[in-house]
Amino acid sequence: MIDQARQSVLSIDGVSKSYLMGEVTVKALHDISLDFGAGQLVVLLGASGSGKSTLLNIVGGLDVPDTGKVTFRGKDINASGEDGLTAYRRRSIGFVFQFYNLISSLSALENVQLVTELVENPMPPDEALRLVGLGDRINHFPSQLAGGEQQRVAIARAVAKRPELLLCDEPTGALDYTTGKLVLEVIQKVNCELGTTTLIITHNVSISGMADRVITLRSG
Prior knowledge:
Blueprint: E1 8-21, E2 24-37, E3 41-45, H1 52-59, E4 67-72, E5 75-76, H2 81-92, E6 93-96, H3 108-116, H4 125-131, H5 147-159, E7 165-169, H6 177-194, E8 197-202, E9 213-216
Parallel strand pairs: 3-8, 3-9, 6-7, 7-8
Antiparallel strand pairs: 1-2, 1-4, 4-5
Helix pairs in contact: 3-4, 3-5, 4-5, 5-6
């Protein structure tokens, strides 16, 4: 992984989150405290329902904790309300989800361009696609790409923003083992070459060997 001082870039301090499901209160997270170093590749393991996605959504500013706080580069991400969270997501976060969410009427290049138009100093879209091994597929549409290639377009779209945090929620969940392994190798390459702090959540223990750090969640 990238050779640099592992100063903390992201801190989670006493975060708890509950949801009301019917008449039942479900505790997704309970008093979670973690620190993440700059440039680390961290794998979050845990069974379904262990709170992995909830934690990632809170870190990414898609959800807010009931108690506790998330600090990014010394600033509470929730301190400035929804406008502050929107700016944080736009400038600092790249998301990769299980499903690719590509626009079918746009080419791979155009799908990546959509994101680069929203941020300052983006990576050129063709460069982002070359980084993930799709330099020869930039003009192909999603329907012309295999599942693993579509996921790599989604990764290129996420990293073209030059985010400081790359958050991956089950990025190989819809792929077979061999294709999933290739996608994970692409994420690892991005982490190494760009120094992007990367969090990958999964229930697949076999990928933990690629990580700088492995965290296992058990029922929040």
